[in-house]
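Protocol step 4 of 6: record predicted structures for both targets in the notebook before any analysis. Target 1:
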Amino acid sequence: MKAIKITILLILAFITVFGQQGCSADEKKQKPESGNDVTDTVTKADENKSGNDSLVNETESSDVQSKPIKINTDQFKKLVFNYDENPDKWVFEGDMPTIIDFYADWCKPCKMIAPTLEKLQEKYKGKIRVYKINTDENPGLSQYFQIQGIPALLFIPMEGQPQMASGALPEADFEKAIKEVMKVQ
């Protein structure tokens, strides 16, 4: 009987430790491992240019975006939704359905979904945009959307309200959201 209890406790401990599919904001931050930084997989705006303007021009003129683009709060307000100007209603600023990936460099589940987002960006090239927002670098935006755990994903259709999901979603769930929420075929 004692052996059964110990076995059950070990199984529960294993599930508790390894069953987590997201990172909470309270989790101790760790330095990213060299070469595994999630930002290695995104395109950044040229920091020597005028920041927002170069990114806005790049994303608006390019319907064939091939990789997710890392943006900050100011860029989010220009490209996606300016919550300062429209505090009471959602007004989408984009020109095609968009996925926003709220992530952190130290979050393992965030790193796990990065290749899936790249694959989907390539598959739906010219039909969707994928932006990445580092929650550590943009705490105000994270607070606005009340993000408690990451990865958090905002699926934005051209018309209607966006929908938020959290955790390391399987590719099939991304596909379902792209088709059903974002209305992209």
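Target 2:
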Amino acid sequence: MRLSCITRNGKSGIYTHQCKNQMTLKNNLYSIISLNRDNNSASVELLPDSLIYKAHFPERPITPGVCIIQIVTEILGELKGINLSLIEVTNVKFLEVLSPSETKTVSINFDKIIEEDNSIKVRGTVADEAKIYTKFSLIYK
């Protein structure tokens, strides 16, 4: 497991430093069931025994929004075969609560992936057969 840290530049309010050690959620919060590079999607299983769910929340575990975005980031990295840094959240909508006690498996679907100017812009959803949990538009470097 790797840990993450960010320092903020007091003058401009811009995040200027990231440690090389970054925590990954793969095999800690979720496991990959399948990756489909042809249609830019993946199926993942949420791991209800994760320490994150024990803290958020013990009686009714809920996947934190920041963790959903990190899962999306890690899956995109797996599909592309590279490590990515999230540089902008253009839009994100958390439409439904994602709980491992109610939903074991979700799909991460990238409807649009545009690679330009040393960045990757993506749009997609986190969903199962019945619900869309999250819609996102993100930019990576």
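Step 5 preliminary note on target 2. The longest strand covers residues 105-116. The radius of gyration is 15 Å.
Proceed to step 6 after PI sign-off.
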